[in-house]
Amino acid sequence: MNNTVFLVGAGPGDFKLLTLKGLECVRQADVIIYDELVNTQFLREAGDDCELVYAGKSSGCHTLPQDQIHAFMIEKAKQGKTVVRLKGGDPYVFGRGGEEAQALRKSGIAFEVVPGVSSAIGGPAYAGIPITHRDYASSFHVIAGHSRVDGQHANEPDWDTLAKLDGTLVFLMGVGNLRKITQYLLDGGKPADTPAALISRACGPNQRVVTTTLVHAYDAATENDIGPPAIIVIGGVVSLREELNFFERKPLFGKSVILTRAKGQNDRMSQKISDLGGEAIEAPSIKIVTIPGNRALELEIARLNLYKFLIFTSQNSVDIFFAKLYEMGLDARSLAGTRIAAVGSQTALTLSKKGIRADLVPRRHTAAGLVQEISLLFAPMDKVLIPRAVNAPFAFSDALNADITEVGVYETIPDHSSRELALSRLREGRADYLTFTSPSCVSGFVAQIGAENLPLLDPVRIIAIGPVTGLAVQSHGLRLHRQAAHHSSDAIIECIKEDAHCQDAPEDSAEPTQSEAL
Ligand code: SAH
To answer: Taking residues 162-190, what's their average pLDDT?
Structure first.
């Protein structure tokens, strides 16, 4: 039974410019064949069992030849799989989408096209250049900047005609040919001072735009080292960039931030950073390993009615505790008689998703503050259960005057899988901020890059979620740049935003108090 192939346009680079229909296709795909230009964030939306195939066509180097892409799509569709061919921008703008559709049609495979925002339009928009404007251009023309090289068709545009058009000219795949393009247009009579823009890596945190004039465009590209992928825009609309440049004015534009939480826990921060125009570099430094089986936890859950209080110190403990509860055939009603404290707003949020509103979310996160606030809840002999990490450094039983039972539900171990990524960004000086949300992330990150590489962190601004984590940063001999105002990932982002805003302001006096490591 043949299945449908979807030719999906992924948009020009910003993940959120993918259409709803495109996102639905990605989520439902059995196989995704994707290109070089597609932001890899799309692939995270794919199901766990989805087969991901890179067809990476970067300029001149075809990882998968075109006929093999056709054959592969057809073969998978014939196996009854839902195939998504994900292409940068719009699938029918250059990129050979038309040929792929023809090949499918010829083989009797059903296909659908999901149009995308072409970089020809989206790229200039993110550079502050409207592709048309009543005062400047009432048409636009998108031209392939390199001719077809198979020798069958010359496919050269009519340069004299192009030169005479008043509309905006947009060249894709044109940087390699820029000298020729500008020369032909000048020869055709286009004024030398026509505004021109070169937009490299549009719609993403590494977007770079050079504005110049037609006659200087080639030199400007060379001087500024503009390489593919880039969009060349020629026309009066380019002069609007100064006024309409919204993207590069976003608070974190041009800033890169390393995130060190466990895999799967960086999504929210990552999202926020890219919404603010920055680049999130995910380098998980710890792994959360659930204690397998965990008879001890089962035992405590079975006698939950004996406990007056339950303290959750992290999202992980909430998730693991509830997974066990459900596994035992129970649900949130088992907690009806228990009062609950959640440390950190994210922990409280995770709890609320399970239908539980925490009785207390301590405002302070130092050990002393926490203990003080929590102590107000119970009497000396009350029984308190704390499901938490086995290797958490701080022992509640020493600090709280109550009958405390701490049960280990997970362990944090170092994750070294992002070592190369982190090191290469640090060596290239392409990491502005490094964020830590717990002491274990700090030691995990240090272990990951290796103590010998710590000097690479000198120019990097280190931000900690709170005093305990700040202290852990300093205990490794690292310089803490700032500390978030509240114990939450949102507060870390706020902190970076403020810092980026006043880069020259004196450094914050982050003064970790005492260890309250949770
Ligand atoms: N189908 C795509 C175009 C494919 S041709 C679309 O509709 O956008 C590939 C060319 O598109 C590149 O050589 C470059 O000129 C341009 N391009 C695509 N995405 C780009 C981006 N994010 N930044 C700059 N140029 C881009």
So the answer is: 96
